Amino acid sequence: MSLNRRDFVTRSAATAAGAALAGGLTAAAATPAAAADLDRDDARGRGPVPFKATFTVMGTTDLHGHVLNWEYFTDSEYDDKAHNDVGLAKISTLVEQVRQEKGRGRTLLIDAGDTIQGTQLSYYFARVEPITGKKAPRHPMAAAMNAIGYDAAALGNHEFNYGIPLLRAYQDQLDFPLLGANAVHVKSEKPAFPPYVIRELRLGHGRPIRVGVLGLTNPGIAIWDKANVQGQLAFPGIPEIAAKWVPKVRAAGADVVVITAHTGVDGGSSWGDQLPYAENAGAEIAATVPGVDAILVGHAHKEIPQRIVVNQQTGRNVVLSEPALWGERLTCFDFEVEYARGQWTVTGVSARLLNSNTVAEDPKIVKLVADQHKKVVAYVNQVIGSCKESLSIADARFKDTPIIDLIGKVQADAVRDALAGGPYAGLPVLAQAAPFNRTAVIPAGEVKLRDAAGLYIYENTLEARILTGAQLKDYLEYSAKYYARLAPGDVVNPDTLTNQANNTPDYNYDSIYGLSYDIDIAQPVGSRITKLSYQGAPLDPAAEFVLAVNNYRASGGGNFPHVAAARQVWANSDEIRNTMIAWVKAKGVIDPADFYGKSTWRLVRAGVPVF
């Protein structure tokens, strides 16, 4: 790994035995002797005159593999209803503008995690041409972030999707530290990644100001990527570890402490009560951990220009900011500081967001990844089969649709084939599916790889678990909390029918392929599933079924009942999207008549269909 750009910072490899520095640090500052104090008494002899200065810490989060302003699933320039732009090439232009405005030596650039998963560009260099190979290419995210000049980044939960070896390979390609104070070795409980780094900025005074950047990641990794981290890494709570490490960062000489954390400001959890740790803990850190000046948060995919939280112990304001996702925004923490009586003091902090759609892409970054981009475009445009009619996901949140049944059919077929000839071959196979991507379409005619990949956008793998009929009903009742309660006769507004009361994301709304049922949204949560049947007969509560389910759900993601504790009878290490691609290639033609209508679900109110 190359050294950091500033020679006053040293970095030790987190994986090397005995590499931890004194006090368990894996990244710290090698600080030169401070220059002579330049404080001078004023003309009236009233003591030293404070030296005042400013600097800016810029931040991104949840880049999710976006280097260019490009959508690989549609093979076109990225655009959305709000006309946002995305990608590091845009961020690079914004960063250079801030550096020119403030002075290059008066800025830092950090990230709050989730960088190497999310686009076909990042997927390609994790799975198709992985950076762990003998002739390993440089990951396009590493290449772009190095070129832009990042100073530090926190680990995100999606960094672990492809396994620890690939994450370590990515880490080794970075010119800056990948921080994670609460990603610890299971046996030693010592940090497996650098907890923090200290950067020095020269603001025109004799002694540079030392900015400590502490990195924290999300404890949910223990559930969401259980297969990749179990027995190797543990992820203690975010505020608890912040309280441990902030004093250490201060003791190591930091005048200012900025936290970059892959956690939201506040809000609900994706895992329910399975862990005693908060998923979105930014505000809690600010309120309970003294000594923090600013927090760059992420994970929640929200746009928060500035949130101020008063620390309960010190009474000082802590400024938080989240710059949306994918490089749509750049956070700027603007610091006001002064030097007096031998020390730097923060006198003010504010945060603002810059919008990527106001600038052009940096041609240097575009050129840097041009060859990799072309390779991925060719890859996703492979023709893998055809479809007899166009299949859209547009109504999948409210209606049983062929495109979601296609996911269920592929998963059920894969599990049924895997169990053939074994002790569970006689059990009926059902499949769980969720509407991941609201814009997915399988076109009539030629079907390309990107069409299938756009339907299943996550790197989930497939498992098979045994559940009873009664457990499956509980599962569906839990899933049906996705819908707001709506009395018969009330106006149906699709924009408020889901996600409102309990903030359930689309990826946590499951239907079960192979069962037929109604969801009565006039009823309270827990009493909504009616007319539940299998192959035309009422579902037997005692009967056993095999449920084809993704690894996120099987590991407890979403906190669905029974499934995480259910008996596993099969698991596959390949992504479900690849299983879908292989299925289409083998069939040649997608015919909805082969799978749609075999089982159905519908929304009702007092038995009357909503749609």
Key phrases:
single chain; 611 residues; alpha/beta; Purple Acid Phosphatase, chain A, domain 2; 5'-nucleotidase,  domain 2; 2 domains; six-stranded mixed beta sheet; 27% strand; disordered N terminus
Provide a descriptive summary of the structure in words:
The radius of gyration is 26 Å and the shape is globular. The protein has two domains: 41-375, 4-Layer Sandwich (Purple Acid Phosphatase, chain A, domain 2); 382-609, 5'-Nucleotidase, C-terminal domain (5'-nucleotidase,  domain 2, Alpha-Beta Complex), CATH 3.90.780. α1 (88-102) runs parallel beside α3 (140-148). The chain has a six-stranded mixed sheet with strand order 8-7-6-3-17-18, with helices on one face. It is built from 16 helices and 33 strands. It is α/β, with parallel strands linked by helices and 611 residues long. The relative contact order is 0.12. Helix content is 24%, strand content 27%. The longest helix is centred in the C-terminal third of the chain and has 18 residues, at 402-419. It is found in: Cell envelope.
What integer value in Å does the Rg equal?
A: 26 Å
Number of helices: 16
The parts where pLDDT drops under 50 for at least 5 residues are 1-46
Distance between the termini: 58 Å
The average pLDDT score comes to 91
CATH homology group of the largest domain = Metallo-dependent phosphatases
- Judged by helices, strands and strand pairing, the structural class is alpha/beta
Summarize the amount of helix as a percent range. 10-25%
CATH architecture of the largest domain: 4-Layer Sandwich
Can you count the beta strands?
33
As for the number of domains, it is 2
Organism: Kitasatospora setae (strain ATCC 33774 / DSM 43861 / JCM 3304 / KCC A-0304 / NBRC 14216 / KM-6054) (Streptomyces setae)
Pfam family, one: Metallophos
Catalytic activity: a nucleoside 2',3'-cyclic phosphate + H2O = a nucleoside 3'-phosphate + H(+); a ribonucleoside 3'-phosphate + H2O = a ribonucleoside + phosphate
EC number: 3.1.4.16
